[in-house]
Design a protein that fits this description.
Elements (H helix, E strand, L loop, with lengths): L2 H9 L5 E6 L2 E6 L3 E7 L10 E4 L5 H8 L4 E2 L10 E4 L6 H15 L2 H5 L4
Antiparallel strand pairs: 1-2, 2-3, 3-4, 4-6, 5-6
């Protein structure tokens, strides 16, 4: 399964999520409005490797980049808002990617939808 299919299989499990191309890349939205993940399977600009960008709560970006700068980076355009870039070309931990996508969903989804993810 390629990276887009893997990310798609994660993101489409969340309530009221749709997928559309945005700037030529598969992108997942909550209620067709709020972006929470974009997947760049061929890379984007200077980042010539498969990766995704995902929304994050304040402080998460800095912590992840500090802990593992080989996997995480500050993406262009959305990095200043705390989004996380995640490399997918170095045998990613797909459980961690799924957790990051869920956290991204929670960061932008209305509380009522995020509550549907509670165990």
């Amino acid at each position: 399964m390629d990276v887009v299919e893997r990310v798609r299989s994660i993101c489409l499990t969340f309530p009221e999520v749709t997928e559309k191309l945005s700037h030529g890349a598969p992108t997942w939205f909550v209620r067709d409005k709020k972006v929470f993940v974009t997947c760049w399977s061929e890379g984007h600009h200077d980042d010539d490797f498969p990766h995704l960008w995902c929304a994050a709560e304040p402080g998460v970006q800095e912590r992840l980049i500090g802990d593992d700068p080989e996997t995480f980076f500050r993406p262009p355009y959305v990095g200043h808002r705390g989004w996380i870039g995640v490399r997918l070309d170095r045998k990613p931990d797909w459980n961690q990617v799924a957790d990051l996508c869920e956290d991204a969903y929670r960061a932008v989804a209305p509380a009522r939808l995020a509550a549907l993810l509670e165990d």
